[in-house]
Structures are given as structure tokens and as C-alpha cells.
Design brief:
Bound molecules: FE2/S2 (inorganic) cluster, fe (ii) ion
Number of helices of chain B: 0
Largest sheet of chain B: 4 strands, antiparallel
Oligomer: heterodimer
Radius of gyration of chain A: 23 Å
Number of strands of chain B: 10
Shape of chain B: globular
Structural class of chain B: mainly beta
CATH superfamily of the largest domain in chain A: Naphthalene 1,2-dioxygenase Alpha Subunit, Chain A, domain 1
Number of domains of chain A: 2
Number of domains of chain B: 1
Largest interface: A-B, 16 and 14 residues
Distance between the termini of chain A: 12 Å
CATH architecture of the largest domain in chain A: Alpha-Beta Complex
Order of helices and strands of chain A: HHHEEEEEEEEEEHHEHHHEEHEEEEHHH
Structural class of chain A: alpha+beta
Helix content of chain B: under 10%
CATH class of chain B: Mainly Beta
Chain lengths: 422, 102
Amino acid sequence: MIDEVFNPQELVSTDGSQVAYEVFSSQEIYDLEQERIFRGPVWNFLGLEAEIPNIGDFKSTFVGDTPVVMTRTEDGGLAAWVNRCAHRGAMVCRELRGNATSHNCVYHQWSFDTKGNLLGVPFRRGQKGQAGMPPEFKPSEHNLHQLRVESFRGLVFATFSAETVPLEEYIGTTMGGYIKRVFHKPVEYLGCTRQFANSNWKLYMENVKDPYHASLLHLFHTTFNIFRVGMKAHCETDENHGLHSIIMAIKENQDAEAGADYKEQKIRSYQEGFELEDDSILALIEEFEVVATNHIQPIFPQLVVQQIHNTLVARQLLPKGPDKFELVFHFFGYADDTPELRKLRIKQANLVGAAGYISMEDTEATELVQRGTVRDGAARSYINMAKHQDGQTDTLITEKLIRSFWTGYRNLMGEVATGAGA
Amino acid sequence: MTMWYAVAHESEIEDDTPFATEAKGTPLALFRIGGAIYALYDLCSHGAARLSDGFVEDGCVECPLHQGLIAIATGEPRSAPITEPVTAYPVRIVDGQVEVEL
Ligand code: FES
Ligand code: FES
Ligand SMILES: [Fe+2]
């Protein structure tokens, strides 16, 4: 029965270059993804350790569309549990963030500790001669559903599956190296923005693996005629399943005086009358070994690590149904930021997020695909840019990262089918 | 300024059974351990539960709501989920009357 719902043969071509639009609007496929992907052998990004620095700190979030709470435990470690009461299923934690050493369900006041263990239940021993819980009731058998949690360079992940390989292995050496580039010293969480998009979560995955659209969709650069000199592109996937990837725009001749290139560009308008009043929005204070204006790195399925100029973000992608997702932009800086650098990071936060100068069109584009395809489940996309030159890594005119994503997706959705059907 | 208030007769307080009373509008739970009588503020520091509805065991009262333990003599928390102490009041016996200072 399961195999009928997701027939990889029909939905995604082996090389990932053709995808039936049904994958973006089918409720059955969406439900299957929750089981095979989000509760399957992957690590889901929950948040930054810097969001919960103190004992008892917690944040309410999701794995797929399952509500999950991540906490800092009494011993300084990390924990995550499904936000569903062990009694009769109510959400235990009703706040986005906070600090608590115990979490009480409002419905009947069952109380759980930071790790999700049941501490006590009201009237366990009854009251004044009235009966309580049966004698065989053992609190330790009624804990919240606890997930495996691991962190990599301050990024916190959880998995439902006992089969998932250790986090570091899941991320892989290549992708781990790029994460270390951004997370090379302690970070401080600055705050977040949230946005909803009326489209399928995988359309956003495609978007962050799609350097082809960058100079075409986003009008900010063309409007102000901001062209870049001495930029080198880099596109690469992880070495294992091809579901993670990186797109970088790297600045060459890095020893040239910082910012000189930029100034010489003389930001001017394509059309008369359009000019940036304050060009510091595009400043680039060099703070990494490899100087890049853009670093966009999806770690499948819930994280996108982003460095754009000096603004740093861990984006969290949360599916909310076949045609809805939420994006949470976690902005951060480094603990040792100078006040000027911190100010610049926050100013450049305007480049990204819901109304970001160079990102506001992204979810508009994913919604256009959703609306354009909803009645044509069997029709297929055409994802062939640079397919005959798949080995090229130094180009932005390619769709190879998307093809690699669909191949990995196909394996993940298909593999389990074999297991489940056996 | 504190004062002594008569809150019960000594004979009313039994081993193993908390006794609920009040003084000046303050709810109190009285306990007897061996010969001595103790008074605690009658509200758990963790939630909305009367310690006088709790169970007495090994010098502690177990909160009826989440089974957290509080030391009867001092009001100190002894187990999760209780982390904050509850107030323990001085007690004296005058002519068989239990008096509490608050
Ligand atoms: S549903 Fe949570 S205590 Fe009853
Ligand atoms: S209310 Fe007393 S232990 Fe929770
Ligand atoms: Fe984009």
C-alpha cells in the first residue's frame, strides 16, 4: 500500500532532473515524508545552543510538523522531547521560549523534568481515602517521548530514529568543513524573524540549491546595477547522500586592500535616479579565511546556514502541510564582535528574511510554483542546466545541486519503502 | 513585627497526618514528628497544592500534586520538581495550645 503512495519510478527520475509536480501538493506524500524523512534516519535542526545557554532554558520548536521542545538540562547537556503529554496528549509546553526546571501540563498538571522524565502526577496516592493511581503505576514508564540530541559547533539537532548515524558523520567532512568556516568561534544569538509561505517545503530546498536564479529573480542587484568584480563561484554537495550542499560566491585576490574593489565599483543606478543612499548595506568586513559575499548551505532537511556579507543566520525550514512551510531566521553574531561589527550585522539583516532586499522574492517564487502546478500533478519540471557538465563546481549557472537533492530524496523515500514493504 | 498566634490544640496534631489551619489569613500546615510540632506555609512552592493534603514520610511531606518532597522541620526542598523552600514558622506550646510566630 505504501508503495502505491510513493512510486519513485513515476515521481522522480533517477538522475533527479525531472520531478512530477504531485510531490508538492499530495497529502499522502507529505504524510509519508513525515515518517520516512523527518522521523527517519536524518538529523533535524532545532536551534542554536546559544539560544538556551542557561540550565532550564528551553525553546519550543518542531521536527517536521511534530512539536518538540529543546532544553538545557541540569547537568549542562541538551535534551529534546516530543511536546505531547504522556497522559492524554496535550501539548505540555505552551511557550516559545523560557526557563523552567519542570514542565507542567495544564490539563491535569502532570509534571516533567528538563529531560522529559515524569516527576509526578496529581493525586497519585488519592486523597482522604479516595483512590489514586493503581498500585502498578510506575512514573518511569510514562516519560515524554525523548529524542536523540547532538550538537555540532553549537548547532543543535535531533532525530527520532535509532538508526541515524552520528551527527558528525551525517553532516560529512566536506559540509562539516563549511560549517566550521562560519562557526569558527563562539556565537551569540541575536533574535529571529518568522515567515510563512504558501508552498511546499521542498520548493524552498530547491531554492537554496539554485544559484541559477540568483542574478535573475532578485531585482535588488539589477535595480542598483551592483555588479561584482573578482568573484568566484563554488557549488558542491556532500560526499554521502547528496542532500546537503553549499553555494559560495568567493572574493578573489583577497590580499587586495579590503573593500577597495567595492568602492571602485561606484554603486550607481541602472536607471537614472535609482541610487543607494547608504551603501554600507553592502559593506563586507573580512572576517573569514575564505572571503565570500555569500555562503548558502542547506543541511537537509531543516537547516540552512547562511553568511551574506556580514549577516549570519541559521535558517530553520519547517513543513506545515503539503502547501505550507514556515521559515525561522535565527540571526547571530560572534561573542567577541566589536560594537561596530555587531551594528553592521544587524543592519545587513535587512538583506534577508521576509522582507529582505535579496530574499523577499524567494518565497514569492515558491508560491508561484505551488499555484502553477497544483492541478498538474503528473506534469514534470525540467532541471537540466549544466547536466552535461555535472563535474563543474566553479559555476553559478547550474542545477546540479537540485538534481542531487532529488536523487537523495528519491533514495530516502524509496529505501524505507523496501524495508516497510518487506 | 511578628506575634505569636494560637492555631490549634496540641492534641489535635497527630503523627503522620498534617493539620490545616491558619493565622492572620496565612494558611498553615502543622505536623507532628515524635514529640515536636512544626508549621509550614500551606502552599507548595512548585504549584497550587496544599501541603496539608500531602503525605508524611521520613521527616518530609510529599506534595499531593507532583510528589515533590519538603523537609518538615526546615521547609527546604528535598526532591524535584520542588526547587524553592517554603516558609517554616517557629512553633511553641503554651498550656497545650500550639502557637505559631508570624
Ligand atoms: S493531558 Fe497532560 S496531564 Fe492530562
Ligand atoms: S505542586 Fe507541589 S510538587 Fe508540584
Ligand atoms: Fe534567492
